[in-house]
Amino acid sequence: QWSICLAAVLLVPVACILLNFLNQQESEVVKNKLDIFLQNFDKVQKSFPNQDEQIWKKSRIMLQKHINMTVHSEPSILMFAAAWNANETMHCLTDRIAEAYASAFNSKFLKIEGSSKKFLNSDKVKLDLDNQLTSWFGAGSKSAVIHHFQDLPPPSTLLFYKYCDHENAAFKDVSLLITVLVDEEKLDPNLSFSLLEERVYDFLVTKFSISSQTGQYNNLDIDKFSGLWSRIAHAILPVLPEKDIEKNGCKHQ
């Protein structure tokens, strides 16, 4: 009995040392991921000098916070909006941010073009998107971009309840970037974030022809869209044109 007690006394500090070592190892892994992300994110920022400082601050904070977590309670969702004169810039900028985030996990990002699904059957689009996202995130990849969200068949967007529903999201340790091209020639660079949110919301309600009447379960009415909006519009960031990118396309610098 004495030998058992002695063994127990000796094992306690050993267990504490082992636990401390494992915690340090985990912290080091997170730090390395964060360093990789911040290094690549800074490169992206330098490549887009015409953007508002706030879009870098907000996106960096949200994505950095997500990488720092060891247990994730919900995915990181960012929405970007641009007018026609910044379409190419928005496309390029969001790809580069998603790539920077994915690089922290030594993976690539998934790119989905909403415009390519504009005239397709909504149920087919919904199933296709679901298969792509589940396959991608299920395989361990951490980042995806949905380009031109406004061009998706309206009912198909209800799929994003599955991926953006806070603590009920199917995958919580991932980032999802969504872009919206509003029907305007250019955005006012002095437009506040709150007014931008209202403008994008109103644009999508009109674009999707959303009715105030409650529809069938697979139709996008105002109640369903408002619920979806509260899940995907955590941060709406304006993208301004970069002349070189609009003229010559996206290049890595």
Largest sheet: 5 strands, parallel
What is the N-to-C succession of helices and strands? HHEHEHEHEHHEH
Radius of gyration: 22 Å
Helix content: 40-55%
Helix segment tally: 8
Shape: globular
Reported by name, the CATH topology is: Rossmann fold
Low-pLDDT parts are: none
Total individual domains: 1
Terminal-residue CA separation:
69 Å
Q: What percentage of the residues does DSSP assign to strands (E)? A: 5-15%
Would you tell me the overall average pLDDT? 90
Number of strands: 5
Describe the structure.
The protein starts with a helix and ends in a 5-residue tail after the last helix. 53% of the residues lie in helices and 11% in strands. It has 253 residues and is α/β, with parallel strands linked by helices. The model has no long low-confidence stretch (mean pLDDT 90). It has one domain: Rossmann fold, CATH 3.40.50.12190. The protein is globular and about 80 Å long. The chain contains eight helices and five strands; from the N terminus they run ααβαβαβαβααβα. Keywords: Glycoprotein, Membrane, Nucleus, Phosphoprotein, Signal, Transmembrane, Transmembrane helix. Belongs to the TOR1AIP family. GO terms for molecular function: ATPase activator activity.
